[in-house]
Amino acid sequence: MSTQIKRIAFFVHYMHPLKISPSIVNSAIMWAKSGYEVDIYKCESGNEGVNIPNVNIIYVSKSIPTLNPLKRISTVFSFIRNSYKYCKGRNYIRLIGFDPYGLIIAGALGIILRLPIVYYSLEVLTPAVYRLQAKFKVLHWLHYIVLKKLERFFHRRSELTVIQDKQRAELLYTTNAFSINNSVLFVPNSPLRDNGDYIKPRSNYLRVKYSIDMNSKIILYAGQISEAIGIRDLIQYTHLWPDGCVFVIHGFGPKDYIQKIISLKNQFPKVILSQDLLDENEYNTMIRSADIGIIWRIDKKNQNSFIMGAASGKMFYYLKSELPIISNKLPGLAELIEDTQCGICVDEETQVGDAILRLLNNFSFYQKNTTLCFKKYEFSKHYQKVIDIIERSSK
After folding, report:
1. Considering the domain boundaries, does residue 195 fall inside one?
2. Among 328, 341, 266, which Cα is nearest to 300's?
3. What is the number of domains present in the chain?
4. 131, 80 in Cβ contact below 8 A?
5. Backbone angles phi, psi at 16, to 5 degrees
6. Nearest-5° angle of CA 343, CA 344, CA 347?
7. Which of 13, 38, 370, 383 would give a disulfide with 55, using CB separation of 3.0 to 4.6 Å?
8. 183 assigned to some structural domain
9. Which of 374, 360, 271 is nearest to 320 (CA)?
10. Cβ atoms of 85 and 108 closer than 8 Å
11. Which Pfam families does the protein's record reference (predicted)?
């Protein structure tokens, strides 16, 4: 007697590879470990950087227009049509849509296939992002209105909403014009622990690569490099940092802004810029070679990015590698850092040097708390509730 294969479907309307979306990858790993075959419907993006047993990547779109936002919306229809050809007869337990576009695709297919849908919100769609667009300003605003209306419609039809924390849930539900209910689950944007281990050995990756003295302390910023982050201001105050500290900036950003950073860093001997494209293992190894992690953002207009809290992937990667954190006072994030005492929050760039000194003077205390904090927010501990609820409601 044959056993029916259990399946679940993810819908991801992104052009970028899956390897830079750890919450999607970790979700797939969790379902696969629970005995499911996972189908991820997405756009072609080259090297996904993901090879997980029982996880299938199904390409249903070759490209997404980026300049004309209305053309971008039109790709949803072909995405739905192409996905349906593969979906029918697969007997999925649920359709999970990631972010507004993924939700709309999952929602439309859910109606056609008469299947329940789940909304997994990683990025909250807010009007500020579209008002700031320089080109096609009117079209971008129309795009926002159409997309938001469709998101609201299918969000109301969702059986479950998964989002990183309460503050981001309040932002999502406010922009979608209805009240938070009991169908919300909070899953931090954190990594999975490695093979059951919380702590991995330290590395010398950055010291070897950039010939950094073994006695120096590496202060690492890993992430987006742009005006919204305020990297230039951080660089300009590195002269106030304790002696023996090196500031490593790892990430990518607009070419013109990166050029400004290169010109500026040449005036500050404590600053190193790293732009290597790293896979998951290399990225973890790189982070484990630092001593302190920095999280920073100065753009308050984009609430999706400013209200960070448990959506801060870089924070949890720092914590996983036992790096105490320095951050400016970002909503949600500041409370998390201060409550767990895994780092120090400051008001402005001029205070970063003092924060570094305080962390170094009581390093073992803060480092111990990074491990405790990561154990509390580790991905599988929270995502298992999503699997349990969906399985219970499917019986």
Report:
1. no
2. 328
3. 2
4. no
5. -80, 155
6. 150
7. 38
8. yes
9. 374
10. no
11. Glyco_trans_1_4
